[in-house]
Amino acid sequence: MALIRDLCLLALVGLTLSGQALAENELTEREKRQGWQLLFDGNDMSQWRNFKKEGLNPEWVVDNGTMKLTGQGGGDILTKKIFQNFDLRLEWKISEGGNSGIFFLVDEEGTSIYSHAPEIQILDDTRHSDGEVDSRRSGSLYDMVASHSSSHKPAGEWNRVRIVFMDGFLRVWQNRVNTVTITIGDSTWNTLIRNSKFAQGPDSDFEGFAEATSGHIGLQDHGDPVAFRNVKILELD
Questions:
Q1: Out of 20, 38, 65, 175, which could bridge 42 as a Cys pair, Cβ 3.0 to 4.6 Å?
Q2: pTM value?
Q3: CA distances (Å), 165 to each of 66, 162, 203, 222, 235, in order?
Q4: Facing residues of 148 across strands?
Q5: 43: left (phi over 0), alpha (psi -120 to 50) or beta
Q6: Burial level of 207, CB count in 10 A (0-12/13-18/19+)?
Q7: Which of these, 103, 130, 100, 128, lies nearest to 117 by C-alpha position?
Q8: Which domains does the chain have, with CATH numbers?
Q9: For 146-196, what is each residue's pLDDT tens digit?
Q10: Cβ(220)–Cβ(130) under 8 Å?
Q11: Positive or negative: CA dihedral 109, 111, 112, 116
């Protein structure tokens, strides 16, 4: 019995140490040496502001170590800092029937955050109507490249996303599944653009879509509660 008790205690200690090593919204010592930056430290959203505004709408809150949009009207938000080449990692959790998104190469020249910025979709794939279109499901390059179903999780569960952008070469993983690999501006990209909602014309707000070489990181208010944590980025040379 004593041996069993000791083994149980060791297992509990191991779980505790593991939890410390994997603490939310913190960088490991190795990540610090590599140059990773936290975009959210679990305590405040000081690195974020609303699109075309200086401040942050109170519908965006810090809740139990997460960045959370509590309801409609919070508005799209973006990082105060601009990034060029980067490795971005974060976790998201969407409400039932919910929709949101992760933007990159965000500028503020168009009428909306998505005017020129590509989006990696966040979605309740089974309940939201966008789930009926494969290129609009979670982990997809919205309306262009469809994610595989093996990357999807039910609403209410945490999802891990990694976005690597280097001189126009874009790779995305969701829950460790590679969902997007494409080069912005090549012939495949241009064909996808022509067949998407981002097709450009003389009166289109999408003129100049994804043509920037740097921009803000953005998160979408689509009217549904959504939470984020472990948001970190490594700038690449």
A1: 65
A2: 0.90
A3: 25, 10, 29, 24, 10
A4: none
A5: alpha
A6: middle
A7: 103
A8: 26-235 (2.60.120.560)
A9: 999 999 999 999 999 999 999 999 999 999 999 999 999 999 999 999 999
A10: no
A11: negative
Structure-block tokens of residue 161:
């996303």
> What is the 3-state secondary structure of 92-157?
EEECCCCEEEEEEEECCCCCCCCCCCCEEEEECCCCCHHHHCHHHCCCCECCCECCCHHHCCCCCC
Q: Which residue has the tokens 């920037």?
A: 212
pLDDT at residue 200, as a whole number: 74
For 111-154, the pLDDT digits (tens) are 999 999 999 999 999 999 999 999 999 999 999 999 999 999 99
Q: Which of 177-181's residues contact partners 24+ apart within 8 Å by CB, and which partners?
A: 177/139, 177/147, 177/148, 177/150, 177/151, 179/139, 179/140, 179/141, 179/145, 179/147, 179/148, 179/151, 180/120, 180/139, 180/140, 180/141, 180/145, 180/147
Assigned token pair, 80 = 């105060």
Rounded-to-integer distance, Cα 104 and Cα 84, Å: 9
